[in-house]
Specification:
Order of helices and strands: EHHEHEHEHEHEHHEHEHH
Strand content: 5-15%
Structural class: alpha/beta
Number of helices: 11
Helix content: 40-55%
Number of strands: 8
Largest sheet: 8 strands, parallel, barrel
Shape: globular
Radius of gyration: 18 Å
Distance between the termini: 10 Å
Strand order of the largest sheet: 1-2-3-4-5-6-7-8
Length: about 260
């Protein structure tokens, strides 16, 4: 299993005080030296964390492949086309969201996504689509010409947290998931089945399969059982863990959890 380390949240800390500390390039260096297989960043339209100069510097200095997440906004696509990352992952984006809330709607935005993929391919950039784990979304991703899909694991992660952590007793409890434990367990099982089915279908269609969103040290083992998934992109939980043990050790810990025999 390849581990893509998302370093956006290093930039979140920096932007909180609008200084250059912590240094995103120092985080890049630590990730490269600590077992990451890929660097993932998200250049958002609102620039709430990664800035244009960050993306440029990371592309220039990274010893690892860079997976650049972006929306289908034309201005953003133009920047990505110039930067030429090793891969572009198209994701949905709303300015008011705290984090990406779901997969890209490939049906509603079919024309715009097709244009984005064509532009990126013209710049010789492989494309992954961040999608909900449904058979329909996988089929459309193939039809649109993507080389890869990244399965959105947010529902799985939320169900796992509501069932196995103190989240229900916190200010961030998920109201729609305030359910009896047996119901949460059933929904968790169904979410894993959906991820497995989507990954299997994607592989049959010749698509590479990644997964990400909400994965952490407690739930990532479930992804290891889905053999078709070959890459995980994880950020917030690694940076959160680094507060207590340092970034290098946090990455190494996750690396150990995502090793396959």
């Amino acid at each position: 299993m390849k581990l893509g380390v998302n370093i956006d949240h290093i930039a979140v800390l920096r932007e909180a005080r609008r200084v250059n500390d912590p240094d995103i390039l120092e985080a890049l260096s630590v990730a490269c030296a600590s077992g990451a297989h890929q660097i993932t960043i998200h250049l958002r339209e609102d620039r709430r964390h990664i800035q244009d100069i960050d993306a440029k510097n990371i592309m220039m200095h990274s010893k690892l492949p860079v997976n650049l997440e972006c929306s289908i906004d034309k201005d953003i696509l133009n920047i990505v086309s110039v930067l030429k990352p090793h891969r572009a992952t198209l994701v949905p984006e709303k300015r008011e969201e705290v984090t990406t809330e779901g997969g890209l709607d490939l049906f509603k935005y079919e024309d715009e996504i097709a244009f984005a993929i064509e532009q990126l391919h013209d710049s010789i950039i492989p494309v992954s689509l961040f999608v909900d784990p449904t058979i329909e979304a996988i089929g459309m991703a193939k039809e649109l010409g993507a080389e890869m899909v990244e399965l959105h694991t947010g529902l799985f992660a939320n169900l796992f947290a509501m069932l196995n952590s103190s989240l229900p007793h916190s200010n961030h409890s998920i109201k729609e998931l305030m359910l009896p434990r047996y119901e949460l367990a059933s929904k968790l099982e169904h979410s894993l089945e959906a991820l497995q089915n989507a990954a299997t279908h994607a592989q049959k269609l010749g698509l590479q399969v990644a997964a990400g969103h909400g994965l952490n040290y407690h739930n990532v083992s479930y992804m290891m059982d889905i053999k078709e998934i070959t890459e995980l992109n994880i950020g917030q939980s690694i940076v959160a863990r680094s507060v207590f043990c340092g970034l290098a050790e946090a990455i190494k810990e996750m690396g150990r959890l995502t090793q396959r025999a």
